[in-house]
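Structure first, sequence second, as always.
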């Protein structure tokens, strides 16, 4: 029975992907014709709330799966993805983001002085290390790595943090893969009257989102009521740190150490990787705009529209 459900989900996923390709082509033509659409269909797609004048903006590797699941529950779609047998990301991409009701709520070309932007972000240093783990675990950056190093580089064969940092150094961080792109979406600087920034590393995400819900008349959602939350947390979040696997390596060797997928699925030495001086310097320099936003609680004055 479970195998049948899995096969059905796979076929459904493929149909969704084909449909999305056709839809993206239509959206690209519309964006070319009307520049006002571009901020709303580029970067990580913003999610408008249907019961309050507010927009959710977030970035990959910044508690994005949890945030999307929370949003779906707030909007009354708590169990929809589970019923279809697809992940929480596929449901909004396939069914929600293109629905007429959703599109009508996008305040395209409107005065945003009475609107709120809810911006969920992450400490750039911790996000860099999380992106590296994700690259090791999934191979999402294999294409960019192959272009950078001029050969077939695959995370499955082992990926070092030194190689990943080199990729970031030479990437266009405003246009590269969303998992290591700057935490800046085009809608973020459109002139919202109020900006609520949630730093998932400095705040309790559930409490922060509940506070936002209370202040905007939205239902409060407990994370432990979200379907499959434990399952997705186990996959996406690194297990507790265990330095034993790399404790014999000095900093230079740790930087060059090639991690493989099984390493990312076991206990992950995230704290030690984040403590490497070269990693801290790179995160501070490469992601300076993200630090500036977090320190200011919103876009620096020079970035405001």
């Amino acid at each position: 029975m479970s195998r049948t459900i899995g096969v059905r989900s796979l076929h459904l996923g493929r149909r969704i992907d084909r449909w999305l390709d056709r839809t993206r082509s239509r959206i690209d033509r519309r964006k070319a014709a009307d520049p006002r659409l571009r901020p709303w269909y580029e970067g990580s797609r913003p999610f408008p709330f249907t019961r309050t004048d507010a927009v959710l903006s977030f970035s990959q590797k910044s508690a994005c799966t949890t945030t999307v699941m929370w949003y779906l529950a707030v909007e009354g779609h708590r169990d929809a993805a589970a019923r279809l047998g697809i992940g929480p990301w596929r449901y909004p991409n396939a069914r929600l983001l293109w629905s007429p009701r959703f599109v009508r709520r996008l305040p395209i070309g409107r005065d945003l002085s009475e609107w709120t932007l809810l911006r969920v972000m992450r400490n750039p240093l911790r996000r860099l290390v999380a992106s590296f783990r994700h690259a090791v675990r999934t191979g999402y950056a294999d294409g960019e790595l192959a272009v950078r190093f001029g050969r077939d580089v695959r995370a499955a064969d082992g990926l070092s943090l030194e190689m990943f940092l080199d990729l970031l150094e030479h990437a266009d961080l405003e246009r590269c893969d969303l998992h290591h792109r700057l935490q800046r979406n085009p809608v973020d600087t459109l002139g919202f009257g109020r900006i609520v920034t949630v730093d998932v590393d400095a705040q309790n995400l559930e409490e922060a989102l509940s506070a936002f819900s209370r202040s905007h008349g939205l239902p409060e959602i407990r994370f432990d009521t979200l379907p499959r939350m434990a399952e997705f947390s186990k996959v996406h979040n690194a297990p507790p740190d265990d330095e034993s696997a790399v404790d014999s390596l000095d900093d230079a060797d740790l930087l060059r150490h090639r991690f493989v997928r099984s390493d990312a699925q076991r206990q992950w030495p995230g704290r030690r990787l984040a403590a490497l001086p070269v990693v801290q310097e790179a995160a501070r320099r490469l992601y300076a705009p993200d630090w500036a936003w977090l320190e200011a609680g919103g876009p620096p004055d020079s970035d405001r529209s």
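Margin note: The chain has one domain: 40-89+112-303.
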